[in-house]
Amino acid sequence: MEAENLINILRLLNTDGIGPVTFYKLLEKHGDVQTALEAVALKKKVVTITEAECMVADAEKKNIKIIPYTAPEYPQALLQINDAPPVIYALGNVELLKYPYSVGIVGARNASIAGRKIASRIAYDLTQADVLVVSGMARGIDAAAHKGALYAKQQQGPTIAVLGTGVDEIYPTENTDLYYDICRQGLAVSEFAPGTKAQVSNFPRRNRIIAALTQGILVAEANLNSGSLITARLALEQGKDIFAVPGSPLENRAAGPNRLIKEGAILTESADDILNVLSMSQNRQIKIKQTELFPLDKAKNNVNISEQKNAEKSNSDNVNLLDLISYEGVDIDVLLRTSNLSQADFFSQVLDLEFSGKIQRQAGNKVARIK
Q1: Which of 138, 146, 178, 216 fits 241 for a cystine, CB–CB 3.0-4.6 Å?
Q2: Distance between CA 125 and CA 122 in Å, rounded?
Q3: The listed CATH number (1.20.1270.90, 1.10.1200.10, 3.40.50.1820, 3.40.50.450) that belongs to domain 95-281
């Protein structure tokens, strides 16, 4: 019955002139998908059973899961919006759709280095605190947020990318490596069928999904005409918290966040600002700081923790990570051990070097200097 229901949903949804809103209006009028499909077939040509079955088979070949609105895996928060996608396509860990706490991070595509750094840092810290980061895999702030999340939890951090293409299409192509990292550690989702290429009209539509999948939206950099402000507005309409990173009034990319703050968004300088709000609104204690673990041999020697932290800070200030990275590439785990830095300081420096164009990630968990 489930397979038959999915086929009927795909047949109805892929018939010309039927989008999410029309789909649900037909359901309301006729009671169920089968009856609605039969009624539509009297007036226009509908997608055949064979065509729908081919859609399912093609998705299965690509390890893409088709999740209809009737499936238990379908996010309940998404069903709360009136134009929820009747099906979503997912590639990766679909269990992340049930993640209890999540924040969307969005912003300018032509983001500054400083903007990308703060987005990555906040994403990293949120992920360390078990808050899932959701974004749209666009260049700029989106990509920086995903990278920060992926670096967290010893480079095993999850993240969700909501795409404006099919989940088997990579856009922009410069994010190819990022796309594969997301699919391996996290999840790529889309309401658009596999094979759907990038279209300008599709990207604003995916914003409502980012908003629906999260408890709040952070806007890092955005001009006043940015789609990121649309995402924030949609989230606000859904009763979500809005966060914004302030910036110079002389910087056009700060105009969007600054306006949001004037209108009541929460001024955000670090992940702590978000975690505190989530903790209050969810009536729970979310981890504010990642607990630092110290080697047992140092504990046995009664090393004072505050002194040790000061020593680590002093060491991190003195270590020039770039000097330890060769042009041929070095394994990140080896680099971490060699640097003697804490994980937080280490990955923060790696992100800084990557965004400043001094190093690049390589296959096999390596980084290399750029000549």
Answers
A1: 216
A2: 5
A3: 3.40.50.450
Kindly give the confidence (pLDDT) of every residue in the chain, 371 residues in length, as a single tens digit, with 9 standing for 90 and above.
688 999 999 999 999 999 999 999 999 999 999 999 999 999 999 999 999 999 999 999 999 999 999 999 999 999 999 899 999 999 999 999 999 999 999 999 999 999 999 999 999 999 999 999 999 999 999 999 999 999 999 999 999 999 999 999 999 999 999 999 999 999 999 999 999 999 988 988 999 999 999 999 999 999 999 999 999 999 998 999 999 999 999 999 999 999 999 999 999 999 999 999 988 665 544 444 433 322 322 222 333 333 333 443 444 445 678 878 888 788 887 788 777 777 777 877 888 788 778 888 887 778 888 87
The domain spans of the chain are 1-61, 95-281, 296-369
Q: What is d(CA 289, CA 300) in angstroms, rounded to the nearest whole number?
A: 24
What CA–CA distances, in Å, run from 48 to 11, 26, 55? 7, 18, 11
Between CA 95 and CA 187 the distance in angstroms is 9
Helix ranges (DSSP H) in the chain? 2-13, 20-30, 33-41, 49-61, 113-128, 141-155, 176-185, 202-212, 227-237, 255-262, 271-281, 296-300, 305-318, 332-339, 343-355
3-state SS class at 26? helix
- Whether residue 288 contacts residue 272, with contact meaning beta carbons closer than 8 Å, is answered with yes
Rounded distance, CA 275 to CA 129, Å?
Answer: 8
Question: Which residues are within 8 A (CB) of 179 and not within 5 positions of it... i.e. 6 or more apart?
Answer: 137, 161, 170, 188
CATH top class, domain 296-369: mainly alpha
How many angstroms separate the CA atoms of 355 and 149, rounded?
Answer: 15
DSSP per residue over 216-265, as a string?
Answer: EEEE-S--TT-HHHHHHHHHHHTT-EEEE----TT-GGGHHHHHHHHTTP
